[in-house]
Amino acid sequence: MSQTQIPAPPAETVTAVDAVGTTEFLTEAAPSHRRRPPWVSLVSYVVTVLALITLNFALPRLMPGNPIDALLAQGADGAVQNEQTRAALTEYYQLDQSIPEQYVHYLGGLTRGDFGKSTTTNGSVGNELGGRVGWSLLLMVTGMLISIVIAVPAGIHSGWNRSKRADRNLLGLFLTLQNLPIYLVAAAAFTLLVSKFGLFPLGDATTLYGGYTGFAYVLDVGRHLILPGLLLGLDFATYEFLVMRSSMVSELGSDYLLAGRAKGLRQRRLKYRYAARNALLPVVTVVGLQFSVAITSIIFIERIFSYPGVGGYMFQAIGQRDYPAMQGAFLVLTITVVTVNLFVDLVYRRLDPRTSV
What we know:
Strand content: under 5%
Largest sheet: 2 strands, antiparallel
CATH architecture of the domain at 38-50 and 128-351: Orthogonal Bundle
Number of strands: 2
CATH topology of the domain at 38-50 and 128-351: MetI-like fold
Number of helices: 13
Strand order of the largest sheet: 1-2
Distance between the termini: 49 Å
Shape: globular
Oligomer: single chain
CATH class of the domain at 38-50 and 128-351: Mainly Alpha
Order of helices and strands: EEHHHHHHHHHHHHH
């Protein structure tokens, strides 16, 4: 009986020798096109930011109503609801100017780092956002880390055991979570875990008048952060899991795995060191894209848990037609998204040399 011949790796693969001298095949396709230079990503980023600034100015003005009507309707008595007051407020917030004039004024303020004054509080929008950006970033980063810890191992295990019981159970679980609206899950979690059983604080990012310092303050912040961060992480994890699983499945028939099995390498090593490592690249892109959908999720979560972030601030500003506050909050969130996407694009280019035009 003739000995079975292991097929040689294709021309585009290279070999790598590990510390004990075992030759294993690692796929690395040679780029067939000229790679896109980094300045293309930077130009695209600048164009996107300019488009977002314009959209950010236009969207509030396309909504029905205006800040003055909303301001005068907020429980003010009839004595102040007169034309003189309305005209004075309209002039104070430059709403008596034409749309092009308002746009020029808005751009001028941005170049100076001035987001304007809130029509509701008459305070500086920049100062009000400054105290909230850090909390939103903390919540988003916590949710993203939780999602990676949950989705990546689950996706690796599910894809490696394709069509087996573990795969079917995990796939069914994450598909169910994906189809549940985040606001419904957050409201149910708040009602049961916070209001009924008191397992987590009622809201805010810290205990009011708690007076905590040092490590006690860190623990207090963590207690307020864990539930909204977990819910945000589960919302992110559903899509990351599907991408990780799909990427793992695509690696199962690779030549380097066939060669590794023929050489007697352990399944754990093949699974995590080689298959999972190659399958991680698409997940890097997904992690960046998740920040794009995080805006909607973070608005609901911050609102339900009274978390003092940018999302809750924007939700309140929308209800009050507070143009400067809406513009400032939306701009901060969207600039964060496109900046993270730029960073992920540059990192992906470094991780995968096959990235090309």
